[in-house]
Amino acid sequence: MTALDFMPAEKAPQAGTVALGATTNNAVAVQVQQQQHRRLEGKVAIDDAVGEALAAALGGACCTYVHCDVSVEADVERAVGYCVARHGRLDVLCNNAGVLGRQAPPASNGAKSSGIASLDAAEFDRVLRVNTLGAALGMKHAARAMLLRRGGGSIVSVASVAGVLGGMGPHAYTASKHALVGLTKNAACELGEHGIRVNCVSPFGVATPMLVNAWRHGEDEEGGALPAPVSAEEVEKTEEMVRGMATLKGPTLRARDIAEAALFLASDESRYISGHNLVVDGGVTTSRNVIGL
C-alpha cells in the first residue's frame, strides 16, 4: 500500500498545506504530480521499493516516504506522528488504501467463487481490515492531530460505487465500501463541531492494475503483493468496458479525474461541504448496472 501527502498550492487553505494519505493506487499519485501547479508533500507505502521510487519521482524535497500498513494501528499512528513532527501540524488526510480481495476457486457444487455460499471468512476480514478499519484508524489519528491545533482540516476517503449500489463488486469489497461511506457521514457529524470536514469520493472503474487484474483473473493481488503489471491493450479493453457502462458518453474515466475530486474535497474550494459522498462514475449509478464480480 502506498500513501501520499498532496495538495495543490493554489487551492490550499494556506501556503504549505500538510497532507498525509495512504493508497494502493500509484496512478492517482502520478496523475496529480503530472498536472501543473500542484505541490505534493509526502507519501507512505508498505512496498518499500515502490514507495521510495515514487517518492523520488514526485520530488524528494516535498515528498517523504514512510513504511505503513493501514490495518496496523501502530503504523498509522507512527505515520501521522512523523508528519506532525516534521511539519508541525496535519491539514489533510486522504484514505486511499484498498484491496478488492482474492477470489477462491469455484465450490464443488458449482457456486461462484465470489458468491456468498463460497465466502471465505478470513479473506472477508482481511478486506474489511484494510478498506474500513484502515480508514477508521486514519480518521482517528488525523482527527487527534487536527484537534491539537484547535480544529480545522479535511479528511477525504476513497470509497467506491460499490458503496452506493449492490452488484458492483465482491461481497467483502462491497460491504467494506458501504461501511466507509457510513463512517464518513458519522465522522462528519462529530468532527464538524471542530471545523473538520469529512468527505469521500466514490469512483467507478479506473483502469489501474488492481482493476485490470481483477477483471482478468478475478483477484487484485496474490499473497498481499502489489497487482501484477498490465499491458496497454488490457488497459484499453478495461476502459472500453467502463465507457460502455457509463451513461455519460465521450470522456474516459482516468486516475486524474479521481485525483481532481479528492483535491477539491481537500481544498478550501469545498469549505462548506462535509459528510458528502462525491460519486465520479459518468452516471453509472443513475441506471441499473450489475457487474457481477
Summarize the SSE layout with pairings.
Blueprint: E1 2-7, E2 19-23, H1 26-34, E3 39-45, H2 48-58, E4 65-67, H3 73-87, E5 92-96, H4 121-148, E6 153-158, H5 171-191, E7 196-203, H6 209-217, H7 232-245, H8 255-266, E8 277-280
Parallel strand pairs: 2-5, 3-4, 5-6, 6-7, 7-8
Antiparallel strand pairs: 1-3
Helix pairs in contact: 1-8, 3-4, 4-5
Describe the protein:
- Belongs to the short-chain dehydrogenases/reductases (SDR) family.
- Keywords: Oxidoreductase.
- GO terms for molecular function: oxidoreductase activity.
- This protein is α/β, with parallel strands linked by helices and 293 residues long.
- The protein has one domain: Rossmann fold (3-Layer(aba) Sandwich).
- Helix content is 41%, strand content 15%.
- The chain contains eight helices and eight strands; from the N terminus they run E-E-H-E-H-E-H-E-H-E-H-E-H-H-H-E.
- It has helices at 26-34, 48-58, 73-87, 121-148, 171-191, 209-217, 232-245, 255-266, and strands spanning 2-7, 19-23, 39-45, 65-67, 92-96, 153-158, 196-203, 277-280.
- The strands form two sheets. It has a five-stranded parallel beta sheet with strand order 2-5-6-7-8, with helices on both faces.
- Helix 1 (26-34) crosses helix 8 (255-266), helix 3 (73-87) runs parallel beside helix 4 and helix 4 (121-148) runs parallel beside helix 5 (171-191).
- The longest helix is centred in the middle third of the chain and has 28 residues, at 121-148.
- The radius of gyration is 18 Å and the shape is globular.
